[in-house]
Every structure is written in structure tokens, then in C-alpha cells.
Design goal:
By secondary structure, this protein is mainly α. It folds into 4 domains: 1-207, Growth Hormone, Chain: A (Up-down Bundle), CATH 1.20.1250.20; 209-260; 267-431 and 476-527, Up-down Bundle (Growth Hormone, Chain: A); 432-475, no CATH class. It is 77% helix and 1% strand. The protein has a two-stranded parallel sheet. The longest helix has 43 residues, at 400-442. The two termini are 24 Å apart.
């Protein structure tokens, strides 16, 4: 067989990064278009959430099957097919004029997006030489982490200046460029192709239908519970309770099935690798905190500091810009500085930023917010690159598709859990703090009564009668109490985010880069 001419690694990188970036952006770009979708499709807020929920559910169902599909059809074919499915789904989403059609098209789009991220990660690991793996993951990290950051800003600009279908149509030219570039420049390594071909025959003889069905049911119901649980008051809802129980049972059955199947669709034996398990778990916690803080900070700025949605989005940009600048630096020094030291620094720095956020007040300046976001950008950059690089460092090349699928899945589920948990705690902590403060009024606290009397007197001076003055004074004080209660809730959650992250610090000591000789490196690229 004639040896294929080596392809420049940066052309490969650009080719596959387009798809991942589009998939990451589309996970959040719809959120800012909700009012436009409601009015255009005649849907309620509860109904329109299916546009996002359907996409995420479809995404997590595909992620673990990346290795399975790569063995059956080839890694490059899987990426191309996923890209075509994503582009087709995007086009149909723009054409949709009813909610059911839009949801179905978003699910189709999600099926395409699900395999893009893990497949790109595997391709980059196979393309870059050993000593440049950190830089490869820096490029991957920028696409994965920055997509959710830029998605709402881009979506807001599009719906304000054009119309909502363009948040989907924008994927078409970028997707087609990526399709052409992947076809021309991305080629599956011969050793990986040979192993996948050998495994495909065995896999076809022992197709793991039971494992795939259990996975679809388990992950689908889990993601629905995480996406819709808070809106349905969690276990006060019979539907959420039933689906949560079904999810636990089927996921346990799925794990048992995969560990006992002759040729499992999802390779859970990878978790026997302590480095992979530790790196993946820390990465899941990192994404949980990233999504939680990304959810909390814009709310804090809008509800308590008086920012508009656009101002809050712009205020979040320094973190993203910092990450764009810092990630390549971290990737460059990966082989020169101990990855464990970089990860530990990132964890401690995030803990410090959480402590700073816990000291936010109702009079916090924009400078105070931006300073913390810049530090957080440095922290997440120091975490993402070495974590994704180390987690896969001891995985053989032919098993990378399986490993990246599981790594991406736990990151996605971790983010969903963080978002759901902190959204629920924000509401409950606010209610509890408000009730505690209102207890002082119910008990006739002298200071509270004096405050109400002063307010009532002020309203009376403006011409209100005694009854109206008292009512207005109590309403105004209740508004102040609500703001203070929400402030207390935000402070607690910021502290909690830092504490939870510090608790995973011991896992860092398990992480270590394996000896280079542990894996045969056969990469043919040109500089």
C-alpha cells in the first residue's frame, strides 16, 4: 500500500475544530432567543424548553457510542456523518414553523453534535506528536469551553438584528467549509484503522443491542430529570420521581451489562485506569462549577446589580478572552511544568475566586466583577488543558474514541448536575433566608417596626392616607428583604462552589503522566 502523504497538523486542527465549536455554541445560543421563539411559535415557556432539552438529551445519548460507531464505520466517516447530520438539522431548524417540528429538528441536530466533540478530541490526540499533546488539548479546550460563553452573546446579536432562524442558518456556511476541509485533510491513522477493522468483525457478531437500549433510556431520562427537575419542583412531581427511579435502575443495569457483554458498545473497563478515572472525575467537577458560576453570575448582575442582559453578557466576556489568551500558554508549557502542579494551582485559584465572590455585596462595582472573572479565566485554563491531556495520557491510540466519548459524557452530565443543583439551591436558599428575616417582623422586632413607621411617615407626607402608607411601607420593606435574601443565597452558593472544588484536590495526587514508552507513537504530520 502506498504511504499517504502527511498532512499539516494545523489544517487537520482547523478542519475538526469548526464542528466542535458549532456544537458547543448551539447548546446555549437558543437560550436568548426564547421570547422570539415563543411569539413566533405560539408556545409557553414550559413548552419552549424542549428546544434546549431535546438537543442536550440527544447529545448525551450519542457521546458514549463514539468508539462503537468508529469501529463499525471508521472514525473519519463518523465525524463526516455527524457533521452532515448537524448541518441538516440546523437547516431544518431554521425552516421549522411549529414547535413539534423545531423540537424534532433540534434532536436531529443534537444527534449530530454528540459525536463531534469526542471524535475531534481523538483525532487531535492521534494527529499531534507526544510532546505537543498539551497544545492539542488547548485548541480543543478553547472550542469546548468558549462555545457556551460566546453562544448567548452571538445569539442575542442575531435575534436583535435579524430573525431567530439565523441562529441556525449561521451553521450552514461554517459547516460546509468544515465538511470540505475534513474530507480533504483528515485521514484515519493506519494503526487505528487496522485495529478498528479487526474489532468491527467481532462487534458485528456480538452487537450489544441490550446495552445500547439501556444506555439510551438511562441517559435520556437522567438528562430530562436534570433539565426539567427544577422547573417541576423535583420529587414533588410524579413524572420526575418516576423518571429518576427509571434512570437509576437502567443506568445500573447498563453498567452491569457492559461489564459482562462479550463485546460491549461502551467500554467501561477504561475506568480501571486510575489516571483516566481521576482526570475525568475532576474534569466533571470542573465543568459542573463552570456551568454553575456561568449561570449564577449573570443572574446576580441582572437581579441585584441592575445590569441589562446585554451588559451582563458583555461583563462575562473578560473570562472568555482571558481563556483564549491563557490556554495556548498552558498548552505550550505542559511538558515543562508539572501538570499536577498546574491543576492544583487552578483548583486553589478557583477556590480563591469563589471566596472573593462570596464577599460580593449589592454595591459591588463592575471592576470587582471583572477582576474575579479574569482570575477565573486563568483558573479554568490551568485546569482544562492538563486535565484533558493527563486523563487520556495512558489510553492506547485505538481506544481513544471510547475514552473521549466517556470523558465528554461525564463532562456534559457534570455540567448539567451543577446547573440543576445550583439553580435549585438558589431558589430554596432565597426562600429560607426571606422567611428567617420576616420572622423579625412577625415577632414585632423594634428596629423593624421603627423602619416601617419611618417609611409610612414618608408616604404620608406625599399625600397617602394612613392605610395606604402602611401597605406601601410594608411592600417596600418586603422588596428590600427579598433582595437581601437573594444576596445571602448567592453568597452561600459562591462559597459552596469553592468548597466543592477544593474537595477534589486529593484526586490531583493520583494524576501523573505515564512514561512515553508506554505507548507506541506513530504520527505522520508535517510542521
Amino acid at each position: 500500500m502506498t504511504e499517504r502523504k502527511p498532512v499539516n497538523k494545523w489544517l487537520v486542527t482547523i478542519s475538526v475544530t469548526f464542528g466542535t465549536l458549532m456544537g458547543a455554541i448551539d447548546a446555549s445560543i437558543v437560550n436568548v432567543a426564547v421570547p422570539h421563539l415563543q411569539s413566533s411559535l405560539g408556545a409557553t415557556v414550559e413548552q419552549i424548553t424542549w428546544v434546549t432539552t431535546g438537543f442536550v438529551m440527544a447529545t448525551v445519548m450519542v457521546m458514549p457510542l463514539t468508539g462503537f460507531l468508529a469501529r463499525l464505520f471508521g472514525q473519519k466517516r463518523v465525524y463526516l456523518a455527524s457533521l452532515v447530520l448537524f448541518i441538516l438539522g440546523s437547516m431544518l431548524c431554521g425552516f421549522a414553523r411549529t414547535l413539534p417540528v423545531l423540537v424534532v429538528c433540534r434532536v436531529l441536530q443534537g444527534f449530530g453534535a454528540g459525536a463531534l466533540q469526542p471524535t475531534e478530541q481523538a483525532i487531535l490526540r492521534q494527529t499531534f506528536p507526544y510532546e505537543e499533546q498539551g497544545m492539542a488539548m488547548a485548541i480543543f479546550g478553547m472550542a469546548v469551553v468558549l462555545g457556551p460563553a460566546f453562544g448567548p452573546t452571538l445569539g442575542g446579536y442575531i435575534v436583535d438584528n435579524y430573525s431567530w432562524p439565523w441562529i441556525f442558518y449561521i451553521n450552514l456556511p461554517i459547516g460546509l467549509i468544515s465538511l470540505v476541509m475534513v474530507t480533504a485533510f483528515v485521514h484515519e491513522p493506519e494503526d487505528v484503522r487496522a485495529h478498528n477493522h479487526a474489532m468491527a468483525e467481532e462487534q458485528r457478531k456480538n452487537l450489544d443491542y441490550a446495552g445500547i437500549i439501556l444506555m439510551i433510556v438511562g441517559l435520556g431520562t437522567l438528562q430530562y430529570v436534570l433539565e426539567e427537575g427544577n422547573r417541576n419542583d423535583w420529587f414533588q412531581s410524579t413524572l420526575i420521581t418516576g423518571l429518576a427511579f427509571l434512570s437509576v435502575v437502567t443506568i445500573v443495569a447498563w453498567i452491569i451489562r457492559e461489564l459482562s457483554a462479550p463485546v460491549p458498545a461502551v467500554d467501561f473497563s477504561l475506568f480501571l485506569d486510575v489516571i483516566f478515572t481521576s482526570g475525568t472525575l475532576v474534569g466533571a467537577v470542573m465543568f459542573a462549577m463552570l456551568m454553575a458560576v456561568t449561570f449564577l453570575l449573570p443572574l446576580f448582575m441582572q437581579l441585584l446589580l441592575g445590569y441589562t442582559a446585554t451588559q451582563a453578557g458583555l461583563a462575562m466576556m473578560p473570562r472568555s478572552l482571558t481563556m483564549i489568551f491563557i490556554m495556548p500558554i498552558v498548552g505550550r508549557i505542559y511538558n515543562k511544568v508539572s501538570p499536577r502542579a498546574v491543576i492544583a494551582f487552578g483548583i486553589l485559584l478557583f477556590g480563591y475566586t469563589a471566596w472573593l465572590m462570596g464577599h460580593y455585596t449589592l454595591s459591588t462595582s463592575s471592576r470587582g466583577v471583572v477582576t474575579v472573572l479574569v482570575l477565573q479565566g486563568i483558573a479554568f485554563s490551568c485546569l482544562f488543558i492538563p486535565l484533558t491531556t493527563l486523563a487520556l495520557a495512558s489510553i492506547p491510540r485505538h481506544r481513544l474514541s471510547d475514552a473521549t466519548g466517556l470523558n465528554s459524557l461525564l463532562r456534559q452530565v457534570g455540567g448539567s448536575i451543577g446547573l440543576a443543583a445550583f439553580a435549585t439551591l438558589l431558589a430554596r436558599n432565597t426562600t429560607h433566608a426571606r422567611e428567617s428575616m420576616l420572622g423579625y417582623f412577625a415577632a414585632g422586632d423594634p428596629e423593624a417596626m421603627t423602619r416601617i413607621a419611618a417609611m409610612a411617615k414618608s408616604f404620608a407626607a406625599r399625600g397617602y392616607d394612613a392605610v395606604s402608607s402602611q401597605a406601601l411601607a410594608r411592600n417596600m420593606l418586603d422588596g428590600l428583604v427579598r433582595r437581601q435574601a437573594m444576596m445571602i443565597s448567592f453568597e452561600k452558593l459562591f462559597y459552596l462552589a469553592g468548597i466543592l472544588f477544593i474537595l477534589v484536590l486529593p484526586l490531583v495526587f493520583v494524576l501523573r503522566a505515564p512514561e512515553r514508552g508506554g505507548e507506541k507513537i506513530e504520527v505522520h504530520v508535517e510542521m
